[in-house]
């Protein structure tokens, strides 16, 4: 019985630990594709103040994908995976989106040009929290939906619920397995079969 109780508590703690140990944004979340094109992008936000210790220096170079923790200067690195794309003119822009998904204003728009090395860099100053999109258009004339990649980005929005969901799930598992263990132990002591 104690083994069952130990196993249930250990597994719940293991699941919670794994959930909390995962980075908030997965590496695969930075990969976006259509039927024709594949793009990998990464966002970096420099610290608001110079780092004072080793922990702050590590956090200063943290990579982000679709969820940026704060407003301010952000640097995007965009890797075009397909070699064929290097000969095509590409337009990059970052737009702020309204709740209905339509663009309300353009923050940055780079003119159409080729990227022979397959890498584009983009600097954006996000002045307020909200929902934005990084738009990548392939070719001089965008005729098909697959010629445009839209990457949604949230900036400075409160994400307090992400770690709390993992903690709540772990606690729920602990309570669930503890109750099962209690009832099994209770029925055995009473001489009844569960």
Overall description:
With 194 residues, the protein is an alpha+beta fold. The protein has two domains: 1-24 and 160-194; 26-158, Macroglobulin (MG2) domain (Immunoglobulin-like, Sandwich), CATH 2.60.40.1930. The chain has three helices and ten strands. The protein has helices at 2-21, 54-60, 161-190, and strands at 31-33, 38-44, 63-64, 67-68, 72-80, 90-97, 103-113, 119-126, 130-138, 148-155. Strands 1, 2, 3, 5 and 8 form a five-stranded antiparallel sheet that branches. Strands 4-10-9-6-7 form a five-stranded mixed sheet, with no helix packed on it. The chain starts with a helix and ends with a helix. The model is unreliable at 16-27 (pLDDT under 50).
Quick synopsis:
The protein is of the alpha+beta class and 194 residues long. Helix content is 29%, strand content 35%. The chain has two domains: 1-24 and 160-194; 26-158, Macroglobulin (MG2) domain (Immunoglobulin-like).
Strand fraction band? 25-35%
CATH superfamily of the largest domain: Macroglobulin (MG2) domain
The total number of structural domains is 2
Which structural class best describes the helix and strand composition? alpha+beta
CATH architecture classification name of the largest domain: Sandwich
List the SSEs and their pairings.
Layout: H1 2-21, E1 31-33, E2 38-44, H2 54-60, E3 63-64, E4 67-68, E5 72-80, E6 90-97, E7 103-113, E8 119-126, E9 130-138, E10 148-155, H3 161-190
Parallel strand pairs: 4-10
Antiparallel strand pairs: 1-2, 2-3, 2-5, 5-8, 6-7, 6-9, 9-10
